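Q: What structure does this chain adopt?
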Amino acid sequence: MSTISIRVNHRDSELIRKYAKLKNTSVSELVRNAVIEKIEEELDADLFEQALTPMERTYTLDEAKKELGLQ
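A:
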């Protein structure tokens, strides 16, 4: 396992520690889960944007079958 260090001011440190205690988890697990969740949200948002991007070309069912060698 690897270690990543972050620097926070005293106020933020206390807030994070108290929140972790409230949630009955470690600071390490709290931060790890928050970062992973943030990354997943951004990736989901990127994929959503890609899905909304108009296609350059559309195909009929017959064209798709021919392109895929199914005819």
